[in-house]
Amino acid sequence: MLGEYRIEGRRASDIAASVERGVGAGALRPGEHLPPLRELAARLGVNPNTVAAAYRTLRERGVIETAGRRGSRVRARPASTAREAIGVEAPPGVRDVAQGNPDPALLPPLGPALAAAAARAPVLYGAPPLSEELARAARAAFERDGVPGDRIAVTSGALDAVERVLAAHLRPGDAVAVEDPGWASFLDLVPALGLRTVPVPVDDDGPLPGPAERALRQGARALVVTSRAQNPTGAAVPAARAAELRAVLAAHPGTLLIEDDHGDGIVDLPPHPLAGVTRHWALVRSTAKAYGPDLRLAVLAGDAVTVDRVQGRLRLGPGWVSHLIQDTVARLWHTGAVDPARVARSYGARRSALVDALAARGVAAHGRSGMNVWVPVPDETGAVARLLHSGWAVAPGARFRLAAPPGVRLTVSALGAPDIEPLADAVADAVRPPAARRYD
Question: Which of 69, 97, 78, 93 is nearest to 29 (CA)?
């Protein structure tokens, strides 16, 4: 137990910090058991209640978990170990299709919109948190898609919005039903808030209604759904699946519903919102994929209580999201700087070509929308290593999975037409049984 690592500290906060340092440094490995309360208390010369408080803090932070008489152990994916750390760096000469970035060629020039936003009068303390121009454009877009847009807030990106919504309603120990596989950063965020993840399997149409209903029936207090361009699978929720999910939510009206529509602006599939079925809900749209990750802005529509709590917390922290950024985004929307149909066609052509090329080689893959293709593999570690050897860096599925089977994610943003066949050859060779593998 613990090997050579020594937990230190006299106060609960110091003991908890010592454990977190060990986990972050890799000295305490996922699944490793921690000493029983009384044993560690005797070793440190402190009261057992002090160790109990430290362990409670670590549970709430998502670092450890407790399994009754089996004691406490480091979580399989502790919050202090970011999923982004699961992967490989692309050395010189290796093509990187792991990063999940948009194609820079499809992003609009920001100079004119930034200059126009900067030309208006300075925004001073006491000004409203929302830019009037952005609020009008956002409300119109939400209402056009059937989402009530009378209450909105602006946050510093989608993850910021999701964190604030979860914190507005949930408490440490609450369970959140999450897509599996799903967005890596979100799967890190949930345990970091002291919440528990309940995996819900995903197919090409989004979360499966049966497992979603089971998770809610067993006590999950929140459900997170990606509307379109799901990361990593490319799933998009069609009308029929949305109707099934609405029926599930109608039977659990106390559920906090969070919809992530980060694909807005890069997909041509219409959204089918679930908003309004439950008492508390939020639908989040970010600018990262359409206008670039450095425009840290997301617009959130929700019920009155949720939006008021998010805005109240914002006032106590950053106060507001820069009006310079808000007005820049409003101008980009107003000028139609991004044509979603053109962007969707560009990503779609690359996605479909890769999925079809893999299918021709007997490899199943998923990629209905957005910029990612998900490839189930029998041996994730081996497939990643073989692809790296073949000149391709891909994202390991472990970054996105809880209970889902192994896979790898390939982002098509950096691919041109000549890249499709060589990449498909490399993937097919990487997932074949050893006896059938090519050795050039």
Answer: 78
Q: 196-203 and 175-180 as β-strands: parallel, antiparallel, unpaired?
A: parallel
Closest C-alpha to 64, from 164, 196, 245: 196
- Does position 17 have pLDDT exceeding 90, yes or no? no
pLDDT of residue 20: 84
* SS3 assignment, position 205: coil
For 80-191, where are the E strands, in sequence order?
A: 95-96, 152-155, 175-180
User: Can you give the pLDDT at residue 79?
Assistant: 55
For residues 294-316, give the mean pLDDT. Answer: 96
DSSP annotation string for 266-315: T--SPP---TTSSSEEEEEEESHHHH-TTS--EEEEE-HHHHHHHHHHHH
Rounded to two decimals, what is the model's pTM? 0.83
Look at residue 77 and tell me whether its pLDDT is greater than 70: no
150 near 297, Cβ under 8 Å? no
pLDDT of 324 > 80? The answer is yes
What is the residue-wise DSSP string for 325-346? HHHHHHHHHHHT-S-HHHHHHH
Amino acid of residue 232: P
Neighbours of 433 (CB within 10 A): 8
DSSP state string for 368-421? SSTTEEEEE-S-HHHHHHHHHHTTEE-EEGGGT-SSSPPEEEEE-TT--HHHHH
* pLDDT for res 383: 92
* 435 vs 145: which has the higher pLDDT: 145
Query: Which pLDDT value is given to residue 26?
Result: 78
Taking alpha carbons only, the member of 115, 155, 117, 149 closest to residue 133 is 117
Beta carbons of 179 and 230 less than 8 angstroms apart: yes
Q: How many residues does the chain have?
A: 440
Report which of 315, 338, 343 is spatially closest to residue 141, judged by C-alpha positions. Answer: 338
Q: Is the pLDDT of residue 433 over 70?
A: no
Cβ neighbours of residue 317 closer than 8 Å, sequence gap 6 or more: none
CA distance 232 to 209: 19
